[in-house]
Design a protein that fits this description.
single chain; alpha/beta; about 25% strand; 6-stranded mixed beta sheet; globular
């Protein structure tokens, strides 16, 4: 038996769904203990410390977060944006270089939670309920963006959040 507080907490996971499916909610909550493949942490450390990659796209596969795609350091933001599937959720990190108003070169690591409106409700629930735990595994995230549509993570929005 779960308490009323625990029951209500089950519904906090998904901010993208307009409907609530109890079966999906309970399954998604159980999935929040999702494993994180060691390659995810290793590749993130390489992005952060060595700048080996511009971005990393992650997906959940067989109850585990795994690396889906690695972006070369020279890859553009448009290349990053085109890496997201139109109808499936993903997590991503992006190493964003920018110049401040004081003309200083800086870099910030962004975390993206991509949950398009066209993805399945269950998938959105699993990604939403696993996001915080996965993010904790990636030490060094500076900015988080959640998006359901490409316009919500446009280059202009990223630039504004970086400053």
């Amino acid at each position: 038996m779960i308490s009323s507080t625990e029951f209500l907490d089950l519904f906090k996971g998904c901010m993208h769904c307009s409907t609530i499916c109890l079966a999906s909610t309970f399954k998604a909550n159980a999935a929040s203990g999702m494993a994180v493949n060691d390659e995810c942490k290793l590749k993130f450390q390489e992005l952060k410390a060595k700048r080996t990659y511009r971005f990393i796209i992650f997906k959940i596969e067989e109850q585990e977060v795994v690396v889906d795609k690695l972006g070369d350091p020279a890859e553009s933001y448009e290349g990053f944006m085109s890496s997201f599937p139109a109808d499936e959720c993903r997590y991503a990190v992006y190493d964003f270089d920018f110049t401040t108003d004081e003309n200083c070169q800086k870099s910030k690591i962004f975390f993206f939670a991509w949950a398009p409106d066209t993805s399945k409700v269950r998938m959105k629930m699993v990604y939403a309920s696993s996001k915080d735990r996965f993010k904790r595994e990636l030490d060094g995230i500076q900015v988080e963006l959640q998006a359901t549509d490409p316009s919500e993570m446009s280059l202009e929005i990223v630039k504004a959040r970086a400053l």
